Model the fold of this input.
Amino acid sequence: MGCNGCSSEVNGLPGGCRSNGICSTDGGYKLTVFNWLSDMKIPTDQETFDVVEVRFKNSRKGFYRNVNNLKLNIGEAIAVEASPGHDIGIVSLVGELVKVQMRKKNTKEDDPTLLKVYRKATQRDIDIWKISRDREWETMMNSRKIALRLGLKMKLSDIEFQGDNSKAIFYYTAEERVDFRMLIKELASSFSVRIEMKQIGLRQEAARLGGIGSCGRELCCSTWLTDFRSVTTTAARYQQLSLNPQKLAGQCGKLKCCLNFELDSYLDALKQFPSTDVMIKTEKGRAFFQKMDIFKGVVWYSYQDEPMNWIPIPAIAAKEIIEINKKGDKVESLEEYKEDIDVSAKKVEFVRVVGQDDVDRFDVKKGSSKKRRPNNKRRRSNPSKGDSQQKSTNNTQGGKGSVKTVRKNVSPNKSSEETKQNTPSEGDKTSSNKSRFNKKRRFSKRPKDSKRGSDNKNEK
Done:
């Protein structure tokens, strides 16, 4: 949210609107309203609406009557009536759209309780207003310490000083009623201003302070949402969401307001699905409801004898079967309707964004064309004495990395019978294995007692 003036750069840094912290287009604030009637001229025989909408800190707005017929534009700082003194605000909306906003807030156009617009803010008014705004953070930290010292179960979330620096509004949240009479006395004596305590809800607190939601965007309540409707867990059940409070709760700790945004479309889609409490009667047996997929229009049922075998059928077919059961007839089985859909074929196709690399580009995929590294370990062969085998060693170039291969040189003139004679038989293999075993036993270490005995025999 910003205007073209905020995008201008000075020495590589954003230049801003250069209007003493005031945006001339009202584009850098919360709950902005686009004036789509700004380019339309008023007829000559009609006067402009004398009520303007004024914005204060964060999302606080108010309607004020322009009794002096000042020519006001959106983004101008004006001095308005307050109790006591005056307050400084910014014009957020003028003209015929103010009537629409007043109807939205249930405010009558001829309401006699509307406060007045005094004048356009002077430089002195703006300087005092900026000094009071600079005191807010330090005042809130000190007031929280005082509240903790008094043992009050409340949370001071925000402080707003009046434009003439004579009054301060303390916004707080509390679960129970709080007796803050001693707190007001200490705050008034320490800050020398008139104190006004205003209790707000958790959602109003999130709307005033703002923040980033789990979706990655600014909170709806602080940008465009003006009314807070009740949200229940039934909205999450209709949308088949997991009832996890950590995922369903927003910044305020309550259920997210966006659960109501798509609820009507889900309710319309659920009208095409059968009731989950009704069971289907077939000749194969009774079938009970297991789950549904609203986007694909598929319902899963399972037989009473086979609870783990879920059969997907279209939702329209399930309603037809229920109507047949009401007439007293039965269907042969649910497998007949299973052919109407192919759940496995409905796969999500991912579109690759231009200039974006694959996440799994470094992973080795199965069935790749890469060759395995050859095993360089030499295997010892144990042929018999009568075998006619020739070992040829072929050293590859590369020094230390040379590989030796063993090949059998068999002339092409030899017949298959000769090759069979040259190959070792099973008896030869067993004899060779026995000889290897005896060699190992021959060079094995003997115990000390046997060695001493052999020495004694030699001496004899």
Remarks:
- The radius of gyration is 43 Å.
- The longest strand covers residues 86-93.
- Residues 426-442 form the longest helix (17 residues).
